[in-house]
Write a structure and sequence with these properties.
Length: 382
């Protein structure tokens, strides 16, 4: 195994083990996870891989094949938010989060490599965190469950790296299974595997990476989050999860005195939670083609109500549908990143060409396109 040979060359011995954790793409349920709502992600075949050995001297050494700069070294008992910067904060944050939760994790040598595209909204960061968490869980015999590992990985990203993400990415990476999407209730982290065997149904789910990231996105996430919280407060509920689709009209009437942006946040979250339920009903009922229309509905809501799309993402959806896709929507935080396109297998190439052609016509760069195959969650591979 190449990763083990590289580990040996770096650290002078074979690793005790090798683990892998995937990136993810979210089929539907966007900006719902910080409202204790529903999401439906699937794991990608793209993974972060970690070769890891324990050390008994309390030293943590971190290295990535994919970044310059060599080995980053720290003492595990000196880890604290702010003590490690750059890419190494993700794995170091996991060690910190495990120890901070009272788990007996000592030093380690870690060598990482990843095929998850970074910054494309496919959660290369969660893959890095989850693979580190699983490796340390097994090596140090912690016996933690997958949801616990995911929550600790999320804590690493929130409190150590300083990114206020929800728990969907880490749960998808930790808990997904092949041929399924993961229905996750972010309130209590219960989950269910929903059959999503695209190939058997003659379908393909294309991921289109726009390769743009608009700076606007930086403040927008916090702003939408605040809008959702304001909406919940005004409605007297704990989170927007507590507003069902049948209560939406009433809720919007109650919010007439609130800012328009708050009403829009509420409408998006309530309708997207409902769309997750409807997509699951279609998949359980063996009607995956009908999911396409709900993807487009979800995109419209993200574009017009939440206002987190951008011209490049809108163009993917428009060009794909125009070329005969069953449906498409932006996925992830928006303002760039990726979109998903559901398409009949035999139309996949034509749709992909149409999107690429539309980008060229608009003067945008060449988008990255690949087919997402619902893959397995984190696991030991060596
Ligand atoms: P996303 O999770 O959507 O890909 P993020 O900005 O959350 O984007 O995370 C990307 C960051 O994760 C990178 O900037 C880098 O710091 C880290 N990262 C991802 N993959 C690797 C890797 N293979 N090696 C080192 N760092 C990585
Ligand atoms: Mg990330």
């Amino acid at each position: 195994m190449r990763i083990a040979a590289e580990f040996d060359a770096l650290y002078g011995a074979r690793p005790e083990g090798v683990w892998a954790a995937p990136g993810r793409v979210n089929l539907i349920g966007e900006y719902t996870d910080f409202n204790e709502g529903f999401v439906l992600p699937l794991a990608l075949p793209h993974t972060a891989v970690a070769a890891v050995s324990r050390r008994d001297d309390g030293v943590l050494r971190l290295h990535s094949r994919d970044v310059e700069g060599g080995v980053v070294e720290a003492r595990v008992d000196a880890l604290a938010p702010g003590s490690v910067s750059g890419w190494a904060a993700y794995p170091a944050g996991v060690v910190w989060a495990l120890r901070d939760a009272g788990h007996p994790v000592g030093g380690a040598d870690v060598h990482l490599a990843s095929t998850v595209p970074t910054g494309a909204g496919l959660s290369s960061s969660a893959a890095l965190e989850v693979v580190t968490a699983l490796a340390l869980d097994e090596l140090y015999g912690l016996g933690l469950g997958r949801p616990e590992l995911a929550v600790l990985a999320q804590r690493a990203e929130n409190a150590f790296v300083g990114v206020p993400c929800g728990v969907m990415d880490q749960m998808a990476s930790a808990c997904a299974t092949e041929g399924h999407a993961l229905f996750l209730d972010t309130r209590d982290l219960t989950y269910r595997q929903v059959p999503f065997d695209l190939a058997a149904d003659g379908l393909r789910l294309l991921v289109v990476d726009t390769r743009v990231k608009h700076a606007l996105g930086d403040g927008a996430y916090a702003e939408r989050r605040a809008g959702c919280e304001a909406g919940a407060r005004a409605l007297g509920v704990r989170t927007l999860r507590d507003v069902s689709i049948t209560q939406l009209d009433d809720a919007l009437r109650k919010l007439q005195g609130e800012a328009e942006s708050v009403r829009r946040c509420v409408r998006h979250v309530v309708t997207d939670n409902d769309r997750v339920a409807r997509v699951i009903a279609l998949l359980d009922g063996g009607d995956p083609r009908a999911v396409g229309a709900l993807l487009v509905e979800g995109h419209t809501s993200l574009r017009d109500d939440l206002r987190v799309s951008c011209p490049e993402l809108d163009l993917v959806v428009e060009a794909a549908v125009e070329a005969g896709a069953l449906g498409a929507r932006m996925t992830g935080g928006g303002f760039g990143g990726s979109a998903v396109v559901l398409v009949e297998s035999e139309r996949a190439d034509a749709v992909s060409a149409a999107v690429t052609g539309a980008f060229a016509g608009a003067g945008y760069g060449v988008p990255g396109v690949f087919a997402a195959v619902p893959a397995a969650g984190a696991r030991r591979v060596g």
